Every structure is written in C-alpha cells, then in structure tokens.
Amino acid sequence: MSTIWFFEDANLFKVLCPHKFRNYKKDHDFDAYKKSDYIYFEEDSANKVYLIEKGKVKIGYYSENGNEVVKAILTRGELFGEKAILGEDRRTEFAQSVDNATSICPIGVQTMHDLMRDNQTFSLKVYKFIGLRFKRLERRLQLLLFKDTKTRLLEFLDELKEDFGYCCPNTGDTVIQHPYTQRDIANLIGTSRPTLNIIMNELKESNKIDFNRREIRLKIVA
C-alpha cells in the first residue's frame, strides 16, 4: 500500500540536488536554518522548490481564527514547495524548520524544469511525488473531519508501520523506529500533546502498544 503521510520510496535528494550536477555545482549552496526559523511564509513569491538535506521541516497554514494547522512534517530527502513546479505564483502555506540544524537545498523553478526535461526517470518521480502528496493531504483531511482522535492515531500508526516498521523476530510485534516527537505526531493528527499522551497511555495500558522516545511497538493481540 502506498504511504499516505510520507513520500514512500524515493529520497529525491540523492537524484536531484543541483550540487550533484556538473552544470549547477559551482553556483549551488545549501541554506542552514535553526529551530523555528521560517523558510517561507504564506503569500511569499513561489520561485523555488526545496529539498531537505538534513533536519525536519513543518508545512502548514493559519486558519481564519489564527490557529496553526500542520499539513506535514518532512524529513531528509523530501521535497516541499512543489506547487511552484505547477505554476503557483504565491505560497498558500508556510514552511518552518523544526530542528536546530536543518540544511535545505533550494532549487529555482527554472532549474527544476531543466532537470525534469533532461531526465525522464526523475521527472516521473517528481510527478509521482506530487500525486502522492495530494492523495495524502486528501486522506488526512478526511481523517480530521470524520474520525475521532483515537482512530486518527491508530491509522497514523498503521501508516508509520509501512515506512519505519519491522517485525521483531522474538515477539512478532511490529517495532516502529521513527524520527518524530510526540509534538510532531500530535500536530499531524490534529490534537494536543496532552491528549495524545492520554490516548497513547490508554493504548499502552490495554497492551496494544508500548513506546519510548525512539520507537513505538505495536503489540500482537492474543
């Protein structure tokens, strides 16, 4: 099953970042950001796309009443600002560094178009990514509108399992080693961190999961 919450199998940084191409290497630099720094704001000019070389980036927007809505939290190898490829002139979301040492590879839209024109395989990967991103956001909206918080968490864990899970040979449990904090997860499923804590502890007490700061274990139900 294709992942909904993350781009499934392509670390685009490996094949796209301009410093890997002779024609672009001499003019290319990375941009460094600390925690809470913004890469761009809503209404900024959309003239670049970005690849994450290191760290995490939060994508979101502010509702009419000023509440922050988090659409995605992205990690190394993932692309954002991709709607500029499709002709978006102004940003409809913000991008903000989540880590203290985030490194971003900025790519001008024209450079991106040149790379896509010259590399059909890469072009297909980019369009696949954009399609999956739209499907993911549509699915997430459905979850936020129609499912309760516990169900949203369980479905999110099921998606995490696809990307970061493996079967423990000793117990048969699924162990998920993921890069997200509890605050990240709370933001992604549209709840508060205290509420997430309560639900995760309820699931732990009922022996459905176990967790620590580095991993979540999905228990086999006897």
TrEMBL record:
SMART domains, sorted: cNMP (SM00100), HTH_CRP (SM00419)
Annotated source species: Aquimarina amphilecti
Keywords from the UniProt entry: DNA-binding, Kinase, Transcription, Transcription regulation, Transferase
Molecular function terms from GO: DNA binding; DNA-binding transcription factor activity; kinase activity
Keyword Kinase among record annotations: yes
InterPro entries: cNMP-bd_dom, cNMP-bd_dom_sf, Env_Response_Regulators, HTH_CRP, RmlC-like_jellyroll, WH-like_DNA-bd_sf, WH_DNA-bd_sf
Coiled-coil ranges per UniProt: none
Protein name: cAMP-binding domain of CRP or a regulatory subunit of cAMP-dependent protein kinases
Keyword Nuclease: no
One Gene Ontology cellular component annotation held by this UniProt entry: cytosol
